[in-house]
Design brief:
3-stranded mixed β-sheet; Rossmann fold; alpha/beta; 13 helices
């Protein structure tokens, strides 16, 4: 038995693959384009595992995706492949349109062709699971109810608009063709191996590097924080138990203002790695001009996945953030390679031949 994971060298995809191989004996075909955030060094622990088959490829390449599906005949596709940084989408939306919309469409077409050519038994067990975001729902007021699966889509950034478009395509392939799809919409993830342009790893890195800790606007934007391994367990649950064509919101039950998250990070670092001058890392906080179109609040109502599928997060924000800070402090080589860009040489240095197919 085999599953196909797209975007498996990214933050969530890599965590999912490592967790999958730790918990199951099932093989994983990992397809990743290796853009700036695709880091094979994150997968060092499983790269020599014969159950992990890495393919350096793009979901926009229909011929490649067709050949992978025919060769490996996966029972499921989990689509993590996406451009995901809002700031980048504001200044260069084209990549988001191509990967998130056209790439998802191309992958759906390949999946449909493969599914239609499968046996009756294989068709019944096949799943296409599309990983999306809570940002497709837009922004909430401070007293608004959290997003549920019935909320209207109101994306406010090129990133969220591109993900909303991909969600609609996935739904359309189910409604039109009967392709057995599932969609998950998650809140903000955090944890090991996250590219340090996102808030939590950026703050940790800048803090211990003695740099400013930049906070957009007044820092009172609210996000629901989900530990990445809880997200991985939710996706496995949806894959095994989810009803075809359904959407499932995945949240961590941890709504916090951005400034509060940064203060918590500073306090943990003060305890684990105090500054030699005795001052607090909070002294490095600097407020900067707010991001264009910055959504004020996201919050997830996870009632559906909890009641229908029996999933709940295992980590509180307090436990998850402690694990996360500890990981970054203990893995400074990975951080240094990632922030310097030298991680791109890792595959050549460690696997000069036979690393990709």
């Amino acid at each position: 038995m085999t599953i196909l994971v797209t975007g498996g060298a990214g933050f969530i995809g890599a965590n999912y693959i490592m967790d999958w191989l730790r918990l199951t004996d099932e093989c994983v075909v990992n397809v990743d384009k290796l853009t700036y955030a695709g880091n094979l060094e994150s997968l060092e622990s499983v790269f020599d595992d014969p159950r992990h088959i890495f393919v350096n490829g793009d979901i926009l390449d229909a011929e490649l995706m067709d050949s992978i599906l025919q060769e490996h005949t996966p029972r499921a596709i989990i689509n993590f492949a996406a451009e995901s940084h809002v700031d980048r989408s504001i200044h260069a939306a084209g990549d988001f349109i191509q990967t998130n919309i056209v790439g998802t469409y191309t992958l759906l077409e390949s999946a449909l062709k493969f599914w239609n050519s499968s046996s009756v038994k294989e068709k019944e067990s096949f799943r296409f699971l599309h990983v999306s975001t809570d940002e497709v729902y837009g922004s909430l007021g401070r007293n608004d109810a959290p997003f549920s699966e019935t909320n209207q889509y109101k994306p406010n950034s090129p990133y969220s608009a591109s993900k909303a478009s991909s969600d609609h395509l996935v739904r359309a392939f189910y409604q039109t063709h009967g392709l057995p799809v599932l969609t998950t919409n998650c809140s903000n993830n955090y944890g090991p191996y996250q590219f340090p342009e996102k808030l939590i790893p950026l703050i940790i890195h800048n803090a211990i590097s003695g740099e400013q800790l930049p906070i957009y606007g007044d820092g009172k934007q609210i996000r629901d924080w989900l530990y990445v391994l809880d997200h991985c367990s939710a996706i496995r649950t949806v894959l095994s138990k989810g009803a075809l064509g359904e959407m499932y919101n995945i949240g961590g039950k941890n709504e916090m203002e951005n400034i509060s998250v940064v203060n918590v990070l500073c306090d943990i670092l003060d305890a684990l790695q105090p500054k030699t001058d005795g001052t607090s890392y909070r002294d490095q906080i600097t407020f900067v001009e707010d991001r264009l179109g910055h959504d004020r609040r996201y919050a997830i109502d996870s009632t559906k996945i909890e009641k229908e599928l029996g999933w709940n997060p295992s980590e509180t924000f307090e436990s998850g953030i402690q694990l996360t800070v500890q990981w970054y402090l203990e893995n400074q080589t990975w951080v240094e390679h990632t922030t310097s860009g030298s991680y791109r040489n890792w595959i050549k240095k460690n696997y000069s031949t036979g690393a990709t197919t």
